[in-house]
Write a sequence for this structure.
């Protein structure tokens, strides 16, 4: 949690009131400057299942990792402190995971406003389930995820803890997309339900809210390195086809970023870009090659942009 004092009690209340009660609840205060640290300590005094970690601010990836380092259970989940979950969230995900002998179980989400009111009502049909094998997950990277629109978030899922035995979150503000390719690589079976058990709060001042309102250099940086890591990961496990697709998809984000930044001012944080363009231009796919050439031109424009703007001003 970081600067989420306004929503914290609702989040924690939804967890301690779960119908599945055998929980170890770890609250990670990521150096929050508001009243979150005190609230965490108060909750720990009220419920013996709660353990609190106070750490310097390091971002969502370091906060999730602090929780993983402390967790002792056979299964693990992660929830953002401005969201909340249905009372049966963990009971349903635990039952699905164990009954299907899966590594990950996943539900669908409900969007809510800042005040917690539901943005759009959804019909409550009989729950449907889908079982995805490791190959299904790999095909998702190649061809898209279809109806699994929330596949790229970590907080609507329950995992076998062994998945994280040699794995931690990375990617800064994009810690989900920066790590889930490795999580799915360790997953032999994922079970998904259409039940909506997790409430995602849309906030203007959240990381994603700020990103949707305009270009953010730190988010762009996290996105670039998340895409670079996914490429390197799939090359390392012998899937150059998926690695190439990761490069191609990264290209869209790169073009947007280069059109909104001065590369010279930020070259230290983006030293990997020339090598990324080179990899794209060496790809066996003509589409990826062409995108690499276009991005290299965008990169050159970003380098010379401050000089052309100065010329216009004079």
């Amino acid at each position: 949690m970081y600067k989420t004092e306004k929503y914290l009690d609702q989040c924690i209340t939804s967890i301690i009131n779960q119908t599945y009660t055998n929980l170890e609840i770890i609250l990670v205060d990521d150096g929050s400057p508001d009243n979150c640290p005190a609230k965490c300590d108060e909750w720990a005094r009220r419920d013996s299942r709660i353990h609190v970690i106070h750490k310097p601010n390091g971002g969502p990836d370091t906060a999730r990792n602090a929780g993983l380092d402390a967790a002792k259970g056979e299964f693990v989940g992660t929830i953002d402190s401005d969201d909340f979950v249905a009372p049966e969230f963990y009971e349903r995900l635990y039952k699905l995971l164990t009954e299907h002998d899966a590594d990950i179980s996943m539900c669908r989400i409900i969007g809510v406003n800042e005040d917690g009111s539901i943005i759009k009502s959804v019909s409550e049909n009989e729950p449907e389930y889908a079982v995805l094998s490791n190959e299904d997950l790999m095909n998702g990277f190649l061809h898209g995820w279809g109806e699994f629109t929330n596949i790229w978030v970590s907080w609507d899922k329950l995992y076998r803890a062994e998945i994280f035995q040699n794995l931690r979150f990375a990617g800064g503000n994009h810690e989900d997309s920066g790590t889930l390719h490795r999580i799915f690589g360790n997953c032999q079976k994922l079970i998904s339900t259409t039940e909506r058990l997790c409430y995602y709060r849309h906030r203007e001042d959240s990381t994603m809210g700020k990103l949707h309102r305009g270009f953010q250099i730190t988010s762009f940086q996290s996105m670039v390195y998340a895409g670079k890591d996914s490429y390197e990961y799939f090359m390392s496990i012998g899937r150059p086809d998926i690695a190439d697709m990761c490069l191609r998809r990264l290209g869209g984000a790169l073009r947007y970023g280069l059109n909104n930044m001065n590369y010279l001012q930020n070259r230290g944080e983006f030293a990997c870009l020339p090598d990324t363009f080179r990899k794209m231009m060496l790809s066996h796919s003509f589409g990826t090659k062409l995108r690499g050439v276009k991005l290299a031109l965008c990169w050159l424009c970003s380098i010379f942009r401050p000089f052309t703007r100065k010329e216009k001003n004079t």
Observations:
- The chain is about 45% helix and 15% strand.
- Residues 307-314 have pLDDT under 50 and may be disordered.
